Amino acid sequence: MIDFRAAEQKDAHYLIDIDIKCFDDAWTPEDWRHVAKYCVACVATWNGAPVGMAVFYNDFMGSIEIVKVAVKRPYRNMGIARRLIFNCILYARELYARRLVMIVPESKLRPGEPDDLSEWLKALRFRVQVPLLKDYFTFYGEPEDGVVFTLPVPLT
Ligand SMILES: CC(C)(COP(=O)(O)OP(=O)(O)OC[C@H]1O[C@@H](n2cnc3c(N)ncnc32)[C@H](O)[C@@H]1OP(=O)(O)O)[C@@H](O)C(=O)NCCC(=O)NCCS
């Protein structure tokens, strides 16, 4: 059975495992220290064990930035990420933030390719915001542009 709750200290090794299994460029221990200091996270659990996570922070300029959303492969396409995003919306409402923001590497916006995110973002009603963020990411030493997606936070 799937449940959703705020992440706790005891979830740390599950979150690291989700990250490693979902991203080629998983966070380093230093990245995790930064995340623990500045971000909040919610988890989706399957029979009590986290299988998905959303990590986000308040930018204090009206936005909640979602830094990562990930769901372990066997649990995908069950609506888990949609519900994690809904939890971000609830958090945003509590803080009177007006929108969710997600910055996505350009290489993950290629419809038809296995790790394309554009259809998923469209299904969740995120919209592209211009301009592109030039060289926002660095993958294996190579710079890559970031595409800003936003979702207005519904009032109710
Ligand atoms: C992207 C990701 C988080 C989606 O998780 P998920 O739990 O499978 O997504 P959901 O089941 O909530 O999908 C929500 C909607 O998006 C659609 N969708 C999900 N993945 C999709 C894909 N790869 N292509 C097209 N549509 C997709 C679903 O069909 C669903 O639409 P519906 O509600 O109209 O049926 C997951 O694939 C993942 O962890 N990917 C690797 C990490 C990553 O790239 N994260 C995002 C950037 S930080």
What does this structure look like?
By secondary structure, the chain is an alpha+beta fold. The chain has one domain (2-152): Gcn5-related N-acetyltransferase (GNAT) (Aminopeptidase, 3-Layer(aba) Sandwich), CATH 3.40.630. It has four helices and seven strands. A seven-stranded mixed sheet has the order 1-2-3-4-5-7-6, with helices on both faces. Helix 3 (80-94) links the parallel strand 4 and strand 5 (99-105). The longest helix is centred in the middle third of the chain and has 15 residues, at 80-94. The radius of gyration is 15 Å and the shape is globular. The relative contact order is 0.15. The mean pLDDT is 96. Bound molecules: coenzyme A. Residues 22, 68-71, 76-82, 117, 119-120, 123 line the site of coenzyme A.
Short description:
With 156 residues, the protein is an alpha+beta fold. Helices cover 27% and strands 40% of the residues.
Provide key terms for this protein.
single chain, 156 residues, alpha+beta, Aminopeptidase, seven-stranded mixed β-sheet, 7 strands, 27% helix, 40% strand, globular, binds coenzyme A
Spell out the blueprint of helices and strands:
Blueprint: E1 2-6, H1 12-22, H2 29-38, E2 40-46, E3 49-58, E4 63-71, H3 80-94, E5 99-105, H4 118-123, E6 127-139, E7 142-152
Parallel strand pairs: 4-5
Antiparallel strand pairs: 1-2, 2-3, 3-4, 5-7, 6-7
